[in-house]
Task: structure prediction
Amino acid sequence: MITLARAVPLSSRRAFTLVELLVVIAIIGVLVALLLPAVQQAREAARRMQCSNNNKQLGLAFHNYHGTFNSFPFSWNITTDLNGSNWPIQLLPFLEQSALSNQIDSRVPAFNEASSLGFPAAAVDANLAAIKTPLPMFMCPSCPEKELHDYKVPQGALSSGVPPTDLSWTSARSDYCAVSGVFKDFATLAYAGASSTSRSGALKQTGYGGESTATRLADITDGTSNTFLIGERVGGSNVYRKRVVDTTLTQNLGPTQGGGWGDVLIGEHWVAGTLYDGSYTSDGGPCAINCSNLRTHGFMSFHPGGAMFLMCDGSVQFNSSTVAAHTFASRITRANGEVISE
Result:
């Protein structure tokens, strides 16, 4: 005898109610809200570590360069006939980029207008192509900027008749720039009531308008572990106020930011500071870290709380955005004899 199972009426089957479904969704939302900051922090920690490793790689290249030439590279150079170079270009052979270095003809400027000024077109084109090459060791992974940016130096920007015309070029981004020195309002704040005999940073400008010799380790009399070599500054041609692009400053000053590794002005960065909201004044201001990336005003990263700096001894130091002005200025200067206090 076969017994048939009794069918369960559809109306008696158990299902989720709307309230239960909403509770489950709410729980998932709370878990996501709790986990997301942790995930973001883990990602930023990884990016920050990579940024630190970039600096260490550059530090090794600086010291290998010094071991070869008995000096650090000059920060930047431009001559009256517009030939130019900078510290990243000089470091290329020490960063396993010899092929790229060989592509650059140092006798020919990398400007779009160079051919019309009488320089060989083929060499100009090769130089322009070379500086468009993105190099990971010059880019912090926390930075959201695109790889390529356009730059320009206006006619007569350096002195009367130099350059003779507007100069333009495109370069791959660099988030690390030279630390040239401290001046204007930030220097006034840092040295209020204190002596100051030299406010220059580790790397020197040479050639046109600069000094005759590059910096040696022996010239870092404030101590190589106490003195910045290069610092983190969001690269590209966008000018930031805090972490928002300032469209007016970008339009007016962005093309002269010195934000590419092939840009000579990546070697020129005196620190005048800005206001705490990142506002620009020609005389500077009290904020030098994470308020603005404007050239000759401040350092800036997308790391919370501060920015990375490569020291002259090859170590990497994270400096807080709240560091005291005198302490920060003391780490900038190479031979001012300051006693650094935390």
